[in-house]
TrEMBL record:
SUPFAM superfamilies listed in its UniProt record: Multidrug efflux transporter AcrB transmembrane domain
Name listed for the protein in its UniProt record: RND superfamily putative drug exporter
GO CC terms in record: plasma membrane
Superkingdom field: Bacteria
Location in or out of the cell: Cell membrane
InterPro entries in UniProt: MMPL_dom, Mycobact_MmpL, SSD
Transmembrane segments: 176-193, 200-221, 233-255, 276-299, 305-330, 367-388, 511-530, 537-558, 570-590, 611-633, 645-668
Segments forming domain SSD: 204-330
Protein family membership: Belongs to the resistance-nodulation-cell division (RND) (TC 2.A.6) family. MmpL subfamily.
Membrane topology term: Multi-pass membrane protein
Keywords: Cell membrane, Membrane, Transmembrane, Transmembrane helix
Length: 710
């Protein structure tokens, strides 16, 4: 029943029904996909653990005007010293800042630095529902005002508002990211297919999958409460486009084989779907379920990423199992031009690169897998130097942005922590005691009370240490310790380095909980799919080793080649999720084919035949996925560059080392034990030419070329 349902999209009438259904679906999907930006949540609460003190602080601060605002700092400087005209302009600008829409509360009086060379104005900008997008518009207006009639006075906008603006603009380059990804994929498909026409169908279907997934996520975000932010939005596009193209490569490869065995292209597609469908569905299910495990994370940015990307994978699967087969059958054999797989024609010679690799591995499989494991293990040693405590503010971008330039200017003339203060909400009856206690701390430069309302007071403390430095994190913890000790204060501490502290704590907890859960889920899926205990353990072990090697390589490259300032606290978990889920993908494609061939040829010959049969298509799939993730480097953000590089390297290691060498060598060494407790032994010895004899038999009965289906 399952195989019959899977084969339906390629039917004579069903193909037209499928095409019309997708066209009807795309009409609203294009408009709904445009809503995705408006439903994103990019405020701080969309990233923090819901149970963290910073999240509780945000809830308590909502009653204050300052609680719904983001401090945005306009810094002016003149190296030779400020002039009276400069101070007059700065004061006049402060009046104009107050008139800018979404500037709420009172713009603070300009603060002159001790060296009389710089002045800073703190502008409270309302975050609002538009998040980073709205803040970016306000920052542009502040920049325009500060830059008017400056007379050589340098100005930059920085602080939390300035960085939010730069982040919003960076994520706004996602369209460029998709263009680069499409160009990369088209180039790989042209090289793979050697056809000027065939590449169109996978790309068209993948683009349809991207738009449809964005539409579904937009609807779920608006009406079902699913959380999506700029980070999960651009990862969604990359993942769906890459995964959909991978599934297309596997389907087309099997369809091409079946076209040589069937004169009716509809029957060829039905057989291709029956043979490749279970592996593709199992692969997509593994990725989607692994991503859903991220719901166990406490960081909202991580837990929200899971369902968003899982929905995208499901949409990609549906598109490639319905729309892609329909388009292939509608187009006919000519889509493969100039080399059409005609009925009865022989496939290309099997003596290719992967056949030769298999023969080399087969000579000494045990020595091969032990040596490969040692090499990968040595790469994993690079993880010793990994620092995933967060990326400092001024290192978040791969280029110097407006906010970074502003912070550099600010730190030259003001206390290092002035750009991102620690904020406290306390009971008003204890506010004097809290302010006095904080002012006595040697790590705090200034303490001011900004507001008081409904028995609560809003206090802001400026650390002496630079934002996100180890000293500033220690200061945030120290502030929490002292204010929590004040009887009756009921203090909640957030803002500044307190947020970073909570992000680090949440990420550490998530890694300990989510990583084992993902491994157990993947293992369970493989056991159900392969009906074996040994093979799933082998596959999971190889993928974990691949992940460790990839992280080791990435750590060394980030530190000593790219000179990045660190890794986001959630980066190791997110990288692990993608690398394990996508790495198991290729192992599923290989091992399901090996098991199929083992039923005819035995495990040893089945392993070599499976490697040869899947080598080309899995290599192309790996290159496609690596290329799409590598395109993330086009975004000027360190997090995007790190994730793109790591996933790309990991996919390439899985494609060229783990699948082709390590898994094949282990399968050859274990033999029939690979499938324990089941036995996969051919009932009768079958010559390896069995499949080729089918082609020869088909060619005997083949109709003339001009009589075959086009």
């Amino acid at each position: 029943m399952f195989r019959r349902i899977v084969a339906l999209p390629g039917g004579r009438r069903a193909k037209w029904v499928v095409l019309v259904a997708w066209i009807a679906l795309l009409v609203p999907a294009f408009s709904l996909a445009g809503m995705l930006g408006s439903v994103q949540k990019n405020d701080i609460s969309a990233w923090l653990p819901s149970s963290s003190e910073s999240a509780k602080f945000l809830a308590a601060a909502n009653k204050f005007e300052a609680g719904d605002t983001m401090p945005t700092i306009v810094v002016y400087a003149r190296p030779s010293g400020l002039t009276p005209a400069d101070l007059k302009k700065v004061n006049a600008d402060a009046v104009l800042f107050q008139q800018v829409p979404d500037v709420t509360g009172k713009v603070q009086l300009p603060l002159v630095s001790d060296d009389l060379k710089a002045v800073a104005t703190i502008v409270p900008v309302r975050v609002g529902e538009s998040g980073w997008t709205g803040i970016a518009k306000v920052v542009d207006k502040l920049n325009a005002i500060a830059g008017t009639d400056a007379g050589g006075l340098v100005s930059h906008v920085t602080g939390p508002g300035g960085y939010a603006s730069d982040s919003g603009k960076a994520f706004g380059d996602a369209d460029l990211l998709m263009i680069i990804a499409v160009i990369v994929v088209v180039a790989i498909l042209l090289f793979t297919y050697r056809s000027p026409t065939l590449w169109l169908l996978p790309v068209i279907t993948a683009v349809v999958a991207v738009f449809t997934s964005e539409a579904v996520i937009a609807v779920l975000a608006r009406y079902a409460g699913i959380v999506v932010n700029s980070q999960s939005s651009f990862i969604l596009s990359v993942l769906v486009f890459g995964a959909a193209t991978d599934y297309a490569l596997l389907l087309v490869a099997r369809y091409r084989e079946e076209l040589r065995l069937h004169v009716d292209r509809h029957e060829a597609m039905a057989q291709a779907l029956r043979r490749s469908g279970p592996a593709i569905i199992a692969s997509a299910a593994t990725v989607a379920i692994s991503l859903l495990v991220l719901l166990l994370a406490t960081l909202n940015s991580t837990s929200g990423l899971g369902p968003v990307c899982a929905v995208g994978i499901v949409v990609a699967l549906l598109a490639m199992m319905t729309l892609m087969p329909a388009l292939l059958v509608i187009c006919g054999r000519w889509i493969f031009w100039p080399v059409r797989p005609t009925f009865g024609s022989l496939p290309p010679a099997r003596e290719g690169v992967w056949s030769r690799v298999g023969k080399v591995v087969a000579r000494k499989p045990r020595l091969t897998w032990i040596g490969t494991a040692i090499v990968l293990g040595s790469f994993a040693l690079g993880m010793i130097g990994m620092h995933a405590e967060g990326i400092p503010q001024d290192d978040q971008f791969t280029k110097t942005t407006e906010a970074v330039a502003g912070e550099q200017l600010q730190t030259q003339h003001f206390p290092a922590g002035a750009g991102n203060p620690i904020c406290v909400v306390v009971n008003s009856s204890t506010s004097d005691n809290v302010r006095l206690t904080l002012s006595l701390l040697p790590t705090i430069a200034t303490v001011v009370q900004l507001d008081a309302k409904d028995g609560k007071s809003f206090i802001m403390a400026t650390p002496r240490a630079a934002t996100d430095s180890p000293e500033s994190l220690a200061t945030a913890q120290q502030v929490r310790d002292v204010v929590h000790a004040i009887l009756g204060a009921e203090a909640e501490v957030g803002g500044g380095s307190a947020i970073t502290l909570d992000m680090q704590d949440g990420a550490a907890r998530d890694s300990w909980v989510v990583i084992p859960a993902i491994l157990l889920v993947v293992l369970a899926i493989l056991v159900l799919l392969l009906r074996s205990l040994v093979a799933p353990l082998v596959l999971v072990g190889t993928v974990v080793l691949s992940f460790a090697a990839t992280m080791g390589i990435s750590t060394v490259v980030f530190d000593h080649v790219f000179h990045f300032g660190g890794m986001d606290a959630a980066f190791p978990l997110q990288a692990f999720t993608f690398l394990v889920a996508l790495g198991v993908d290729y192992n599923i494609f290989l091992v399901t084919r090996v098991r199929e061939e083992s039923r005819r040829l035995g495990t040893r010959r089945g392993a070599l035949t499976g490697l040869t049969a899947t080598g080309g298509v899995i290599t192309s799939a790996g290159l496609v996925l690596a290329g799409t993730f590598a395109a993330m480097a086009s975004l000027p953000m360190v997090f995007a560059a790190e994730l793109g590089f790591t996933v790309a390297v990991g996919v390439l290691i899985d494609t060229f080392v783990v699948r082709s060498v390590l898994v094949t060598a282990l399968t050859l060494d274990l033999g029939e034990a690979m499938w324990w407790p089941r036995r996969v032994v051919p009932a009768k010895p079958v010559p390896e030419l069995g499949r080729e004899l089918a082609y020869i038999g088909a060619s005997v009965n083949a109709a003339p070329l001009e009589a075959q289906e086009r």
